[in-house]
Amino acid sequence: MRPFLLLSWVQADRCAARTTQAISCEIKALSSNFELCVHEPGLLVAGSSQDVRRMSAKCFVIGDIFAGAARDEKCAIAAPPDRSSFTSYCRELTATRWGSYLAIWNDCDARSDVTLFRDPIGMRECVRWQHSGILFITNEPGKWLPSYPPDDFDIDLEEVRQIVAFPSAVADAEPLRGVKALEAGLLTRLAGPESSQQRLWAPRTFCSRSESPAAAPEMLSHLVDSCVMAWRSGNDRAVVELSGGLDSAIIAASLVKAGSLAEAFTFYSHDLPGDERRFSREIAVHLAISNTEIVLGPEALDASRLSSTVRGWRPGIGSTSLFHDAVLASHAQTIGARQLFTGRGGDAVFFQHPSVLVAAEPSPDGRAGFLKRLEPMARWCRTSVWAVACAALTRNLSALEPARASRFLASPQPRPRSLRWAGDLNGLTPAKQMQIHGIAAERNAFGPSHCSQVLDVIHPLLSQPLVEFALAQSLLVLTDGRRDRALARAAFVNRLPQGVLSRRGKGSLTGYFGQVLARSVPLLRQRLLEGRLCRAGLLNRPALELASDENYLLQFDCYAELLTLLEIEDWFEHWRMQIDRLGRCSRHLAP
To answer: Domain range holding 576?
Structure first.
């Protein structure tokens, strides 16, 4: 997403005013797509001029904001005339608009008093900190933190321990002290040293508990098309990463309908499970689109590839890749693309996970319909009919198993935290909780990457209207009680090739990752066994020593965990060096 920076300070604070004046000079020296949009006493806003909207004297909205897609396009929202009406204004935004945005009420005449609302999904990164009386709010903290850090700036080892233990929850982590995320869907008021929060949007609000009729597939396809069309409201060239799977194929089909797909890209490896070209070619032919195939070579990882990764204020788990991120960014730039669309989020929104817990969901066609699904669900979950029936009959006793900490984390191992974005899930069925946890984990995709530095990276399946629609459906509707993403398959049955719609599995790069890591044992041992995470006592050294062996890596799948640790180690090293440099500068400048 396009970068922005908002600074707020008390008008009478001359020191803060001088600092913000210096920052405004820095901004003027930057590229033309990052400009000074507002600079007045107590407030500075910079970014793309198309992103910054002044709604009233003290109210601003930054980002992409849309009507339509199950919203009342004719519903106008009056700009809030005062702070007391700003909460109602934000409620109206959640109900009648959607997108990737931040709404701000800035009132810093006599004292610092700012109220903020981040879009419910959190598609636009947004963090805050204080520096010398100035409130910094931005989606690119890595650009400003080294020069304008908070007073207590440091790495929080307990937060890093949580990331190592449960990397899928990284979107909830705050691993840099003094730097806080603005939580999605929450109204946050920052009044001097005090802060307060009010939740305006929560996933559970949309979860139906009744046996309501099943949604028609046409409703879903229309909603996907509407969301894709909204994101494609500009004239920029768009590309899609076509994996050969269902979700990216759906996005490609919607882009074709919108008449705006420039090209598709497919990455593959030479081993059979990692080669999805058969399916991506079938999709490309069916949709009549150009598809560039790029092979991933099994070369060993080296220090230069690790050091070239894009680092945010959190590790880029789920948003970046050591293998194809930079390559895709380069190819997209070469053809002049400005937007990259992905199928991320589909596994959770459309529900991909085979689980007998789905049997405890409300049945849209009553008891008779559920009985018809017993055998197909047992086949889908690869279990017995009795196991499915038991899950349905004991729905109030079933529970979601807690996540397990990484095997490479040193003791003591922490318990998984409740996900802040998910909110209160008490009373929801275990399968619906599983879906919400899945959507929360997919939000990792909003982190930084090489692609996001040069392109608008868009994950349409995580758009607010689609998330709300999926949450409102029983999982027996989304899966038809017989297979993953059944409603999504039915919705696009006339727009995608049958071979893609009917396949029950998907390719995997697991073997490819194993080959690469087996060739990278010296780097693994250097970075992990001798790295900062191990020296900080966060890693299980014996487990790492066992895994850092070529023969072990060729036999046992621990590849995702090791690659994640490499990303966390690189992130830790980067910020440790930045913070140490700040410490040296402070000592040098001290009287």
So the answer is: 510-589
